[in-house]
Amino acid sequence: ALEANGRPPSDFPPEWHVGPESRVVVTGALSQLGMELILQLHEICGVGSVVAIDDMYPNTRRSRIDAVEGRLKYLQRRVPGFSSFVVPTFGIHPHPGLGE
Q: What sign has the CA pseudo-torsion 38, 29, 52, 63?
């Protein structure tokens, strides 16, 4: 890995290249860095399938909705035709009234 970032893409086999057929998993996806990585994968590499994972704290329904709505608007401005996000409720604090 230390040597890989200094080598040109042509040094790697074509099946290792990230492109339109690639499926990529990004952790920390709701952070600024995660969002930019997803956008660069789309804009530069043409990746159309990204699974985004984030453990986002505080982990309440309200904080998750606020973060997702803001990120959705940002993505819609940057990626023409982007229309939806799938946001799992797995891991959200289950007790109503706590942090809502």
A: negative
Residues making up the chain, counted from first to last: 100
Spatial distance between the Cα atoms of 17 and 100, rounded to a whole number of angstroms: 43
Does the predicted model carry a pTM greater than 0.70? no
Q: How far is CA 26 from the centre of its chain?
A: 5
Average pLDDT of every residue of the chain: 76
Contacts for 72 with CB less than 8 Å, ≥ 6 apart:
85
At 94, which amino acid appears? P
Query: Which amino acid, one-letter code, is at 47?
Result: V
Query: Measuring CA to CA, which residue among 3, 9, 73 is closest to residue 44?
Result: 9
